[in-house]
Amino acid sequence: MDDLEIELEVMEGVYGNDYELLCRSPPCLRVLLKPRTADDISQQFVEATLVIEATEQYPAVRPTFELSNAKGLSEKRQADLMNTLKSLTSTLCDEPMLLVICEAAVDWITSMNAPEDDCCFCLFPLVMDNVHGDRRPYMKLMSCFHCFHSDCFGRWWRWLKINEYEAFCQQTSSLQDELELSEGSSGSYSVEISSKQLDSFVALCPVCRTMIHAADVAHVQEYLTTDLNGAEEEGNETVLTSSILTEEHARQARFAAELDAQQARGGIIEPRRLEVIMPGMYLTTTPIQSVLVPPVESTSSKVEACSTSGTSNSSSIETPELDPLKQVHRAPIRHHAANNKMRVGRSSARDHHSHTHATTEQDQGHQDFELRGSRKGKLWIRCGTKKK
Amino acid sequence: MSTSAPQKTLSKIAAHRLQKELSEWQVNPPVGFKHKVTDNLQKWIIEVTGAPATLYANEQYQLQVDFPEHYPMEAPQVIFIQNAPLHPHIYSNGHICLDILYDSWSPAMTVSSICISILSMLSSSTVKARPPDNDRYVRNCRNGRSPKETRWWFHDDKV
C-alpha cells in the first residue's frame, strides 16, 4: 500500500459519508465541509463542498481545489476560505496534505458558522455585532440554508396558515352550499375535501422561492404554532393589559371581601384615633362636626398642619350631611405665621380631602385657613371651605 | 385616479419594518428614484426618472406606494399617479401588471427592490403603448378599485 492509498483511507475514515472519491488516479475527491456542531445540523448555518484535484506527481506538486455548492457563504467569505487554503498549501511541500487542507477548511467553516445577512422580514442583522444587544434567536431552512429570526419566520408562517385557513373555509362553505343544493347530502364529503386542501398548504422560501417542506422547519416547530413573543404583536397588547386589569380587579375584590369578613368578626385593628373630647371644643355653629385634636408637636408648615388635621380627623369622614361652610375644625399649630390667612393650593387640598370630601370639586383648592386666637399660648387654626 | 380603499393602520411590525426601509433608502436610494418626504409612513410618493438610453429616458413619473396593515407579509399597493407611462403593462389608471406586486410577492422584497423591478420593466419596453385591454380594464376599475383585487394574468415575461 503506498502513501496515497493510506491517505485516502484515512480521509474516508475521518469524513465518512461526507467524503467521496471521484477518481483514484490521479486522485480527485470531494469533501462536504460542515461546521463542527456536534451533529446538530439545525445549527449549521454554512456549508460547502471542497473539490480537490491532484496530479500524478502528488504530493510533489500541490493539488488544486475549488468550492462548490456553498450555502450561507457570501462570495467574499468563499474567497477568504480559498485564500486561507492557498496560503496554507504554500507552506506544505512534498508531504501528504489532503487531510491537512480539509481540516483547515473545516476549522475555517466552523469559525464562520453564522448567517451574515439581515433577516428578510425585519431587515435587521441576524447576528448583532455589539455584545450588549440582546440576541434574537435565528433559524435556517434546512434545505436552502436561508436564515431568519425565528419569531419573524414564525409570525409569517402563522399568517400564511391563517390566510390559507380562511380561504379554504370560504371555499368549503361555498362547496357545501353547492353540495346541499345538488344532493342535499351531509357534510362528510366536504370534510374530506377540506382536510385534503389543508395538507396541501404550500409555502415558498421568501428568499429563493424553493418549496418549504415539513422537514425544513421541524426544528422550529414551537415558533410555527405559537406566538412566543406575544407582546410584540399588535392587538395582543391590549388583550394583555385588559387581562391584567381583570386580574387586578379580582385581587382587589378578594381583599375587600377579606376586609369585610375581618371587620364583621371584629378581627381587625382599626387605626388609632387621636381624639380627645374636651369641654368647649364644639363651636356654637350647628351642626357640630368638629373634633378637637390635642396639640401635636409640630413645627410643620401649613400643608403639614392641614394633613395632620385631615388624617387625625377620620371620624368626620363618615358624616353624611357635611356642610362645608359650617364645618369647623380646630387643629393646633405651632406656627406664628405673620399672615392671618394662608391660602393653600391644590396640593394641600388633596391632603385636606378627608374632611371636606363631601364638598364639590369646585371648592377644592379654595380652602382657607384662618388663624384664630390662641389658647394657652398656642395658635389654633380654623379650617373650612370658603364659599365663593 | 388614485385608488384609496379604507386602510387599516400599520401594525407595529409593519411600522418598524418601514422605518428601517426608509432609513436604508435615505442612505442608499435606488438609482433613478426620489422619495418625496412626507410624514406619512404608510403612503410613499416616489418620483421615477426614466433610465437613459431607453424609451422613457428623462421622463418623470410618480409612483404611489400604499402599505397594508400586515406589510411585508402582504404586498403593498403600487400604482402610477397622474400620468402613467405608456407601456404595454401599465394601464392608463396607473395600475401595473407586474407579478411581484401580486401573486409573486415575497416578504423579502422591499420598496427599493420593487422600484428596481418597475424601472427594469420600463427600460426593457420596445414600444410605447397601452395594454390591448386597457379601456375595458379601466372601465371595470372605475370606482376606485385596488389593483390588488384584480385577478392578473402574467403572460409576458419579456417586458
Automatic annotation (TrEMBL), chain A:
Domain of life: Eukaryota
Name assigned to this protein: Uncharacterized protein
UniProtKB/TrEMBL annotation, chain B:
Highest taxon of source: Eukaryota
Identification of the protein by name: Uncharacterized protein
